[in-house]
């Protein structure tokens, strides 16, 4: 493998793919093209499909000519203000206004998942973009940063925290950095700033929740987006078995840990999935004895409702 192709290979691995997964993708592409395309050409195609627009001198010019005939995404792009709950195959164009770090969590099947988010703004509105698993790794790339333009392809809209629309991007979606934008649209996007986004974004209600955690022993209701951190079986001193479910609830601009014990943990796990927006009632405010951070704990009167 030449240095240029090796660089492409390493950047694909940096997106979060394992070597085994990447080799499997290469094998599938070779079979798809009836073995007439070289491995370097196949790597190039995989890179394009994952939002990396890199060129290698090792790849024949005619291959570029073929692949440069891209879909005119401008024809399908909608304004953020036109988003509605339940929409799929969404195409958006905007500027990265703020970023959150990648977080890991454990799914019900004990596999490790990853999630992160960023705020996308166009000339009129902003929306939170949620990236899952290998897509989440994109934010660790040096070229993914605030004020860069980005195109979202194949997202789906869900109702998120504060009952506002957010767009999720899973394995079938694509994120294209520094897309080709020209003319009036480019000037509009370049003018977008975080200050403007605050005008169009829902008001942040972090302060009331923060005060409630500090001042109250119980929270009557809290709404947020769920990430399952851990579910495990415990053996009590009595010899009996119990269960512990720990979830991360992103609510009102902050993330708080919520714990459910015993059958409450099992019942809750049957209801929720990662990314769900839920309402949880009758929670007790606890202080973690190790981290000294505030946590929420299920009580016998707690219940979970999908929103």
The largest pleated sheet is described as:
5 strands, mixed, barrel
> In percent, how much strand structure appears in the residues?
35-45%
Q: State the shape.
A: globular
Number of discrete helical segments = 8
The CATH architecture of the largest domain is: Beta Barrel
H/E topology pattern = HHHHEEEEEEEHHHEEEHEE
CATH superfamily of the largest domain: Nucleic acid-binding proteins
Fraction of residues in H or I helices:
25-40%
Overall SS class: alpha+beta
Unreliable runs, pLDDT <50, ≥5 residues?
A: 61-70, 196-207
Instruction: Output the strand order for the largest sheet.
Output: 1-3-4-6-5
What is the CATH level 1 assignment of the largest domain?
A: Mainly Beta
Q: How would you sum up this structure in a few lines?
A:
This protein has 307 residues and is an alpha+beta fold.
Describe this entry's structure for a reader.
- The protein has about 300 residues and is an alpha+beta fold.
- The chain has 3 domains: about 5-65, no CATH class; about 75-200, Beta Barrel (OB fold (Dihydrolipoamide Acetyltransferase, E2P)), CATH 2.40.50.140; about 205-305, Nucleic acid-binding proteins (OB fold (Dihydrolipoamide Acetyltransferase, E2P)), CATH 2.40.50.140.
- Helices cover about 25% and strands about 35% of the residues.
- It is built from 8 helices and 12 strands.
- The chain has helices at about 5-15, 20-30, 40-50, 60-65, 185-190, 195-200, 205-215, 260-270; strands spanning about 90-100, 105, 110-120, 125-130, 150-160, 165-170, 175, 220-235, 240-250, 255-260, 275-285, 295-305.
- The strands form 2 sheets. Strands 1-3-4-6-5 form a 5-stranded mixed barrel. A 5-stranded mixed β-barrel has the order 8-9-10-12-11.
- α1 runs parallel beside α3 (about 40-50) and α2 packs across α3 (about 40-50).
- The radius of gyration is 22 Å and the shape is globular.
- It starts with a helix and ends with a strand.
- Mean pLDDT is about 75; it is low at about 60-70 and about 195-205.
